[in-house]
Amino acid sequence: MKRQKVALVHDYLVTFGGAERVLLALHEIWPHAPVYLAIYNPQTLGRHWHKFQHWDLRPSWFQKLPFANRLISPFRFLLPYIWESFDLSSYDLVISSSAWAMSKAVLTPSTSKHVCYCHTPPRFLYGYPGARPWQHHKLVKLYAHFINHHLRIYDYLSSQRVDYFIANSQEVARRIQKFWRRQAQVIYPPIDIPAVLPSSPKRNFYLYVSRLVSYKHPLLAAKACHHLRRHLTIVGQGPLEKKVAHFATQSPYIHYLGHISDQRLHHLYQQAKALIFPAESEDLGMVPLEAAAWGTPTIAYYSGGAKETVRPQNTGLFFSKLTQPSLIHAILKFEKNNWSAKICYQWARRFRKENFQKAIRRFVAQHRA
Asked: Domains (ranges, CATH) in the chain?
């Protein structure tokens, strides 16, 4: 029997996050598959570039433009031309890893199967909070309103070309049904799990880990901890990093580290009392699972995918409003309870890479015909 010819499609490789971890796990299943993508940038990937540099990467024509990684967002109206420029006619199976840049829009022949692993329908098209407050600029708002109207139509039409959808969470499966009128099976993405539960004692500090963007509310976590005189270590980069760094210089309780190595991050996960996760309408929320993998519970805002990754009273608790009083109340409530690192670790093990890859293989085998 002839080996199935497979292609992988991914939005872009300019940063390293949950979507890129999914791509790594998919590539382990199909190591010979070429990866089609809008652009890639070794400089912005930094120390993560070595994970991809020997792959068969096939970027679009957009890669040739100067400052392509900076232009892809303002030139988003070109996305349909980017994805439809690829020739995938020789493949039996195409698996797209799709989110902001709509890589699911590639054209595939009727003889092949196209499976889309959807991290979320594009947030900027459907009113979900994004990384930058572009709505504050009138000209940008007018431009985006015009472009996004046409992209929403295209986003829906291109979703109808996909044969099967996999969602990274129940939250995203509901969005797929709402915006595209398509059904999706949920297969949770993989996280790195230590072989055994670390035995490091907890220290007296909280931890915030995420991109420093408005809808993840890093300053809310910082202000609540400052008010309570609780130490908070913040890890991450993004548009708000100058504000976060400035606040840290004004408070003896807030410690901003910026970007750190995985090894140091794991060490912080082990030692933190809890992760504070005030993200709004998160697609899934892998960070609470990463914290749980190192035996650390989470104090999370009750929203989006975090409702699936945090188990109340077992691996953490929720606060209901994006306000300092609500978060402060949750922190004080957290401190009155005892939390089991073992329970957190056992919960996180359900999301290990082997389970993800097994589920993907099973899904593909079931829908191969």
From this structure: 6-190+352-366 (3.40.50), 206-351 (3.40.50.2000)
